[in-house]
């Protein structure tokens, strides 16, 4: 059973992400992606993470941080029909998500994090699976303008993600990743085997489990494409969470910039941690992310 106080905190956090759901309908029109070089699939690419929001209590600091690390550009806008600012994130010519301002309620609580949205066949049916499998619906399924339908859920181990069914298609796989682009998604789970079963039932993934240095990883495949991975949480104090991996040419060089830009290196690139190809870091507001050597 979910702890009510924890659930209430999660609801406060996730309510902020509802702003982004409104924006998706505005920035995912036919003209916006074409004009910015984004290619959309004819049909939604179920099983793919298609949008990302950074919830933060310090937008100015994180903008400087990510600009330094990835050379991102930002576009300030307002949300259709809602109050409050929203900042679009642009990596090269690709929109990958947005920044939502969210104040922490006190000095002991940090809500800053990356929130990813997963493309699914049917949002309502998927949320029903979530509840049947022991998860929680944080924002029920709702229509998002002309864009489609969306919801936000918490899996049985309290990792949070969004669900989206688009009417206009999803960003396709034709773009070759460059520095600052998103290249992978990984769930750090309290019980990786249980999480693997949950997401198999949730999104119809085919699961392939492989062994690598540091333990096994469950690879989630949809339509023959590797979309994400699940691992056993390597850090005792880290709650289960979906982590987003961003491409860098040299993880060691990128990690050397993190602290001077206001972030922290939690796991530095090393031979013991995936042959120095990955580092776990946090931005100035405390949001966790992975930097990953690309191409591998």
Structural commentary:
This protein is of the alpha+beta class and 296 residues long. The chain has two domains: 4-166, Roll (2,3-Dihydroxybiphenyl 1,2-Dioxygenase, domain 1); 182-293, 2,3-Dihydroxybiphenyl 1,2-Dioxygenase, domain 1 (Roll). It has helices at 4-27, 31-35, 59-70, 123-132, 192-203, 251-258; strands at residues 49-56, 73-78, 85-91, 94-101, 113-119, 136-144, 148-154, 160-166, 182-189, 206-212, 215-222, 225-232, 241-248, 264-267, 278-282, 288-293. It has an eight-stranded mixed β-sheet, with helices on both faces. Strands 10-11-12-9-13-16-15-14 form an eight-stranded mixed β-sheet, covered by helices on one side. It is globular and about 45 Å long.
Poorly predicted sequence stretches spanning 5 or more consecutive residues:
1-9, 11-20, 22-35
Inertia-based shape:
globular
Please provide the ordered H/E string of secondary-structure elements: HHEHEEEEHEEEEHEEEEHEEE
User: DSSP strand (E) fraction?
Assistant: 35-45%
| Spatial order of the strands forming the largest sheet | 2-3-4-1-5-8-7-6
Count the beta strands.
16
What CATH calls the topology of the largest domain is 2,3-Dihydroxybiphenyl 1,2-Dioxygenase, domain 1
Q: Rg to the nearest angstrom?
A: 18 Å
What is the assigned CATH homologous superfamily of the largest domain?
A: 2,3-Dihydroxybiphenyl 1,2-Dioxygenase, domain 1
What's the tally of helices? Answer: 6
Number of structural units classed as domains? 2
